[in-house]
Design goal:
- The structure holds two protein chains of two kinds.
- By secondary structure, chain A is of the alpha/beta class.
- Chain A is built from nine helices and seven strands.
- Helix content of chain A is about 50%, strand content about 15%.
- Chain A is globular.
- Chain B is α/β, with parallel strands linked by helices.
- Chain B has one domain: Rossmann fold.
- In chain B, strands 3-2-1-4-5-7-6 form a seven-stranded mixed β-sheet, sandwiched between helices.
- In chain B, α1 packs antiparallel against α2.
- The radius of gyration of chain B is 20 Å and the shape is globular.
- The two termini of chain B are about 35 Å apart.
- The model of chain B has no long low-confidence stretch (mean pLDDT about 90).
- The chains are: A alpha/beta, B alpha/beta.
- At the A-B interface, α4, α8 and β3 of A face α4, α7 and β3 of B.
Chain lengths: ~280, ~290
């Protein structure tokens, strides 16, 4: 398949930009240069969010360099996002240990990242009939568990289960939650989303950086009841460089019933439902 | 005299059954404990289980262990016990790391074991320091030391940082939260010398080509695969310090001794006097 000279030029420019980000990010030491690493990641994410040329993306996706970039940037993003959350969570715990008065989670979180998630989940919940759905599971809560806390504060859900297969993340988030609230409505479990039994659940939210999205969906189909709903965050265009997508080989027992597109983050959220027949 | 595994006498049979019965009780209690909500209960159960296993090792049950290791119980439950032990060890470190960071202890110019708050890391720190002296690593001219599965609390890194002059100590962990906390703890003391750095990698993917010594901790899983990766990517003559379980410790920790990559020589092993579940294997590859 041949592409035009202009398309080649655009593709080369894109690859050049991404190579620049890759080289700069590779130089940073995660600990010593953390602030610089974070700033460069912000610039990189700003850059990929701006790219909305479908044709260019399609060509890039088929280029030889795409898989290598994908491997590299996904690792960087996972490190960036989870470290950012760990910093916020440990910071909040420190505050709650030194401050005896009640701490409001969202007031004390300085990260823009949390505000973005907050907006996103608020819109995602509009796709769901919250009167009928009382049990939620979040797959991949990370150390900050902000989605779990959002569900706790903004819904009447009877049970909100948070899963993560990372022992440090689950420990930090459970300690952080314990330091601000004491509630039986939230249950955190050290478990891979691809191993959990979803039989009692009404809605499952799958995190962006969940590594085994397709396997999680298969497991929901295998163990979840008919009609169980899933909110799946999917990357658009160059956001594919940092998050995994799952809709291309989606389990045939799942139907897409709704979707929202977030222009600011170039992400979309799909509402899937396990068929009732 | 070799033990004939297919023939077990009444005395040993009774002993194996007794141990299995005890371990079944522990397993059931652990399975019925919520790791998050009942964390204290879980930690206490794990402490009791480890103490029970120390007891078995202390009683010099070598012969009983040979039979026990080949029992279906051991084969069926090893994965369960090593998984919960790994969770326990890493959470124990995370608890200490959060305490250190939230109390600002790591910023008070404290070095060595005085940095730590709880007893567990202090014991580990002393153990690592004693081993270091016994090995004479402080006197050798190594350039790069790689410590795998650093975890949230970089005890081994700190022991080597304090006791040696190795210019480059790299902590490798596949878990970003652990790297953040370990980095935060060593950041202050590393300010001037810049000897410690961290790498976010799985030990199975890391490239060991520049390492002079590699350290594999006791709770690392897939030790043989890690050793295969080191043999494949490290330079000739690389030294590996690998913690491997002693006797009943195999129920909780992955062993590195069986099926060891043929490139490795076993130079020596160090056992501590106090009851520990493991020993330190000193391995090196052929310089050829």
């Amino acid at each position: 398949m041949k592409i035009s000279a202009k398309e080649k030029k655009d593709l080369n420019n894109l690859i050049k930009e991404l190579t620049g980000f890759q080289q700069r990010l590779s130089k940073f030491d995660y600990v010593k240069d953390r602030e610089d690493f974070f700033k460069e990641m912000e610039r990189f994410k700003g850059f990929i969010r701006k790219q909305a040329d479908e044709k260019l993306y399609k060509n890039f996706e088929k280029s030889k360099s795409f898989p290598e970039f994908k491997r590299f940037f996904r690792k960087m993003e996972e490190y960036y996002e989870r470290t950012l959350e760990a910093i916020e969570a440990v910071g909040l715990m420190t505050q709650s240990r030194t401050n005896s008065s009640n701490i409001n989670f969202f007031q004390h979180i300085s990260s823009k990242h949390v505000q973005v998630t907050y907006e996103q989940i608020k819109n995602e919940l509009n796709m769901i009939d919250l009167k009928k759905r009382k049990r939620f599971v979040m797959v991949g809560i990370g150390p900050l568990a902000e989605s779990v806390l959002f569900l706790f504060e903004n819904t009447d859900a009877l049970k909100i289960v948070g899963l993560d297969n990372n022992q440090e993340a689950i420990h930090i988030s459970s300690e952080m939650i314990k330091s601000i609230i004491n509630t039986p409505r939230i249950e955190l479990i050290h478990c891979d989303g691809a191993d959990y039994d979803y039989k009692n659940e009404d809605v499952v939210l799958v995190a962006n950086f969940c590594a085994r999205k397709s396997k999680v969906l298969d497991r929901i189909v295998e163990t979840g009841k008919n009609g169980i709903q899933i909110i799946l965050r999917e990357p658009v265009f160059l956001i594919n460089l940092i998050y995994r997508e799952a809709t291309s080989g989606i389990n045939p027992r799942l139907a897409i019933v709704d979707e929202i597109y977030f222009d600011k983050t170039k992400a979309k959220s799909l509402l899937l439902e396990k068929l009732d027949y | 005299m070799k033990t004939k595994l297919n023939v077990i006498d009444g005395k040993h049979y009774e002993a194996v059954l007794r141990i299995q019965k005890e371990l079944r009780i522990y397993k059931s209690k652990i399975e019925n404990t919520d790791l998050i909500v009942e964390r204290s209960r879980f930690m206490k159960l794990m402490e009791e289980l480890i103490a029970y296993i120390y007891g078995l090792i202390n009683k010099n049950n070598q012969e009983v262990f040979k039979y026990f290791k080949h029992s279906s119980f051991f084969q069926e439950n090893k994965v369960f016990f090593s998984r919960v032990n790994c969770y326990y060890a890493r959470v124990l470190e995370t608890i200490e790391a959060i305490d250190l960071i939230s109390q600002g202890n790591h910023k008070k110019n404290k070095f060595g074991k005085d940095l730590f708050i709880n007893e567990y890391p202090k014991i580990l720190f002393e153990k690592s320091t004693r081993e270091l002296k016994e090995l004479g690593i402080d006197k050798k001219q190594f350039q790069e030391f790689v410590i795998l599965e650093t975890g949230s609390l970089p005890v081994t890194i700190l022991a080597y940082f304090v006791a040696t002059k190795i210019p480059k100590i790299i902590g490798v962990d596949s878990n970003q939260e652990a790297i953040y906390m370990a980095g935060e703890i060593t950041r202050n003391m590393n300010k001037k010398e810049q000897r410690i750095s961290y790498s976010h990698f799985s030990p199975l993917d890391y490239n060991y080509s520049k390492a002079d010594i590699v350290y594999i901790p006791s709770y690392a899983r897939n030790k043989r695969k890690i050793l295969d990766r080191i043999a494949k990517t490290a330079k000739d003559g690389v030294m590996v310090l690998c913690r491997t379980p002693v006797q009943f410790g195999e129920l909780l920790l992955d062993s590195a001794e069986v099926g060891l990559n043929p490139r490795f020589f076993k130079e020596c092993e160090i056992k501590m006097q106090k009851p520990f579940l493991d020993k330190l294997l000193v391995l090196s590859t052929l310089d050829f």
